């Protein structure tokens, strides 16, 4: 939506009553116009992804200069594997935050899911894939229970999921029974979540190409249709810059990954979920309904939206994603345990969603904040690990980053208010 | 009024805790006619509108659509019948842009995917016809002025091709030109054969477009007047309750004595009973 400021000449000539206000600041053509519009957006508090991207660059520069090994392909490749688990969980949190709610149980759910999978697959000898499906289904059931109490009964989501936070980790410990930990067997699919790489260099480059072409095609056809319908559309330069940025990012990542072990399966699954969720949120009625309920639930109800159903299903999706993320988390830990998913996982996941640019106040945000936010958190964690810092320092730094993100969210909300935007 | 009503309310009551917001309301809405609903602040106009729209469910009474009783339990039910409502509080989602608000709950889709281009084109067309200037249809409605928001809410009611359009104070925030546009629109809708319910505190507007005026006073019917044959003073009298006279007072008193007082909350009782019959007798 950004950058679609209509320019004067694109208005249908001779229309009886132009919809466009003549006072609207019209973007000049060419580079100067973009710079000017960019400035205006910053002042208006529409920061978009800029703070996170700048933050990531700062983090990379700082840790590289301190350790000298942060920007090695091996380290960067590992980061892309580590972010999958918390990232998948963060996608669910983004959806919940868009509703203007919170889910405090995702960490416990992740641990519970890993426990269910491990006990079924390793303990009971159930088929590995079936055990994975059952673990995710357990997530769906848990989310539906949360959604039922929140959406149907009207208990605040904060309280319902706080109860879940305790209750599900209790269930996790109970399920694990006498076993302290259950290690992942060699031939398990869950191990591949951490260990499998498409080592052929064609895989990473191919994926980068597919992503770039897909993005270009979607953008191009969209703008063509807008032009055909005589709606304001982006200029060619604009399209070229956007596609160029995506291409550079995709191929750089592919190049780095191929310097190490190739394309990790974890990253492929994470990206697939991100793209699917982004599509759902921005291109389907259901996604529109999520934003509407998060913005003004009563208005959504009056528009005929089934608010209860939207709320309930979002919690179902969030817990299912937490269950899936839990399996990745277990893969990294090497197995399921009684304490898997406790500690700072929950805070990191929520922090990631907010750091990435999804508002805590509901109705504002985007799915890609799950990727950007987890990248920030994981980069900090990895960097501090390289420096040999103890986990208490990591806690403090992550806490500070979360605070900064929330402050940015609150301030940008206030600036947008004064600049006339919500 | 020889034709059967499109929408009819029979004995509709609604109570909020200790407040009897509506008691025993009767109202008939006819296709091709504009019915103005007037009354003082707190008379129950918006409550009545929300009952029709399915935001509230009536405690008692029935709502008939084309002669058949229907239960309107949810806003969808009302929309499915063909009733479009512009609420006094507009009920817009501030975080969504104009196009998204206009199509909320009934997005245009192609192959299951939102068809933003079709929606935006239609949205611009509609806003053009309402001659309102909006900086862009792609900005969140939070950044629009009060009047612009109101026009967006009105435009939204027209998207779904309704048979009844209910407008709760649609011109309250509008300038001279936009008010005229909305009144023109009301007349256009009537000419197209739609039924319009218009709530307004502006008697001049009401007299300009309405065919009949239904007066609500303290949550009760206080008369239905054909605009052409009723003077301004008579309507104002019905609104304020000044139409009260000795005859109605006496009939009210006998009613109370018989124990047929319809309202149970004692405090407001006296005033309400007095005005019960006033309207009908004036009319
Ligand atoms: N949700 C509610 N809960 C409790 N009381 C309510 C509620 N909505 C309305 N009321 C009460 O019902 C009565 C009628 O209110 P309503 O909003 O229908 O008035 P109105 O005729 O639309 O007034 P106005 O001209 O000021 O818009 C008022 O006394 C009001 O306090
Ligand atoms: Mg009102």
From TrEMBL, chain A:
It comes from the Bacteria. The chain crosses the membrane at residues 47-67, 79-99, 106-123, 129-150, 157-176, 196-218, 239-257, 263-281, 310-331, 343-361, 368-387, 393-411. Keywords: Cell inner membrane, Cell membrane, Membrane, Sugar transport, Transmembrane, Transmembrane helix, Transport. InterPro entries: ABC_transp_permease. GO terms for cellular component: plasma membrane. It is found in: Cell membrane. One of its GO terms (molecular function) is transmembrane transporter activity. CDD domains: TM_PBP1_transp_AraH_like. It is a multi-pass membrane protein. Its main location: membrane. Part of the binding-protein-dependent transport system for D-xylose. Probably responsible for the translocation of the substrate across the membrane. This is Xylose transport system permease protein XylH. It comes from Streptomyces lonarensis.
From TrEMBL, chain B:
Coiled coil: none annotated. InterPro entries: AAA+_ATPase, ABC_carbohydrate_import_ATPase, ABC_transporter-like_ATP-bd, ABC_transporter-like_CS, P-loop_NTPase. Residues 7-243 form the ABC transporter domain. Keywords: ATP-binding, Nucleotide-binding. GO terms for molecular function: ATP binding; ATP hydrolysis activity. It comes from the Bacteria. Residues 250-283 are annotated as: Disordered. CDD domains: ABC_Carb_Monos_I. The keyword Nucleotide-binding applies. This is Sugar ABC transporter ATP-binding protein.
């Amino acid at each position: 939506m950004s950058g679609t400021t209509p320019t004067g000449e694109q208005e249908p000539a001779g229309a009886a009553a132009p919809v466009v206000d003549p006072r609207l600041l019209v973007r000049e053509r060419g580079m100067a116009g973009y710079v000017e519009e960019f400035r205006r957006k910053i002042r208006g508090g529409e920061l978009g992804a800029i703070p996170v991207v700048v933050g990531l660059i700062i983090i990379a520069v700082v840790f590289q200069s301190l350790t000298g090994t942060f920007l090695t392909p091996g380290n960067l490749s590992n980061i892309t594997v580590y972010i999958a688990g918390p990232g998948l969980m963060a996608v669910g949190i983004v959806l919940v935050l868009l509703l203007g709610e919170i889910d405090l149980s995702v960490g416990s759910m992740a641990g519970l899911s890993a426990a269910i999978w491990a006990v079924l697959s390793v303990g009971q000898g159930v088929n590995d894939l079936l055990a994975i499906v059952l673990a995710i289904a357990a997530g769906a059931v848990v989310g539906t229970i949360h959604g039922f109490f929140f959406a149907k009964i009207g208990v605040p989501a904060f309280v319902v999921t706080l109860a879940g936070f305790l209750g599900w980790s209790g269930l996790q410990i109970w399920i694990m029974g006498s076993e302290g930990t259950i290690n992942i067997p060699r031939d398990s699919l869950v191990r591949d979540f951490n260990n499998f790489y498409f080592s052929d260099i064609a895989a990473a480059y191919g994926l980068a190409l597919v992503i770039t072409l897909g993005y270009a095609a979607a953008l191009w056809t969209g703008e063509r249709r807008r032009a055909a319908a005589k709606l304001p559309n982006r200029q060619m330069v604009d399209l070229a810059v956007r596609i160029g940025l995506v291409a550079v990012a995709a191929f750089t990542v592919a190049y780095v990954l191929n310097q190490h072990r190739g394309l990790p399966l974890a990253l492929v699954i994470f990206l697939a979920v991100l793209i699917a969720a982004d599509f759902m949120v921005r291109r389907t009625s259901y996604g529109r309904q999520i934003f509407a309920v998060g913005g003004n639930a009563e208005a959504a109800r009056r528009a005929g939206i089934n608010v209860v159903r939207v709320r309930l299903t979002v919690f179902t999706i969030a817990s299912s994603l937490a269950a899936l993320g839990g399996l990745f988390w277990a893969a990294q830990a090497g197995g399921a345990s009684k304490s898997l998913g406790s500690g700072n996982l929950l805070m990191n996941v929520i922090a990631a969603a907010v750091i990435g640019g999804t508002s805590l106040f509901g109705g504002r945000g985007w799915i890609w904040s799950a990727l950007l936010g987890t990248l920030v958190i994981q980069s900090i964690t990895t960097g501090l690990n390289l420096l040999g810092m103890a986990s208490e320092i990591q806690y403090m730094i992550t806490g500070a980053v979360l605070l900064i993100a929330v402050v940015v969210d609150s301030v940008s909300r206030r600036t947008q208010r004064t600049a006339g935007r919500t | 009024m020889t034709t059967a009503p499109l929408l009819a309310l029979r004995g509709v009551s609604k109570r909020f805790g200790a407040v009897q917001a509506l008691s025993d309301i009767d109202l008939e809405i006819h296709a091709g006619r504009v019915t103005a609903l007037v009354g003082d602040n707190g008379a129950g106009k918006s409550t009545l509108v929300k009952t029709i729209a399915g935001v509230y469910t009536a405690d008692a009474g029935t709502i008939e659509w084309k002669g058949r009783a229907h239960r309107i339990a949810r806003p969808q039910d009302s929309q499915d019948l063909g009733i479009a409502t512009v609420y006094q509080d507009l009920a817009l989602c501030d975080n969504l842009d104009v196009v998204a608000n206009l199509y909320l709950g009934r997005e245009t889709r192609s192959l299951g995917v939102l068809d933003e281009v079709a929606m935006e084109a239609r949205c611009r067309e509609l806003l053009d016809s309402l001659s309102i200037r909006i900086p862009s249809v792609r900005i969140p409605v939070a950044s629009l002025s009060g009047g612009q928001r109101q026009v967006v809410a009105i435009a939204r009611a027209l998207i779904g091709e309704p048979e009844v359009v209910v407008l709760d104070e649609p011109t309250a925030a509008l300038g001279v030109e936009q008010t005229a546009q909305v009144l023109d629109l009301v007349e256009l809708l009537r000419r197209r054969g739609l039924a319009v319910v218009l709530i307004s505190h502006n008697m001049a507007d009401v007299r300009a477009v309405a065919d009949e005026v239904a007066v609500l006073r303290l949550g009760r019917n206080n008369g239905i007047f054909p605009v052409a044959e009723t003077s301004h003073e008579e309507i104002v009298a019905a609104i304020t309750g000044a139409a009260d006279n000795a005859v109605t007072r006496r009939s009210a008193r006998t009613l109370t004595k018989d124990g047929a007082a319809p309202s149970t909350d004692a405090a407001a009782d006296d005033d309400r009973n007095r005005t019960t019959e006033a309207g009908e007798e004036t009319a």
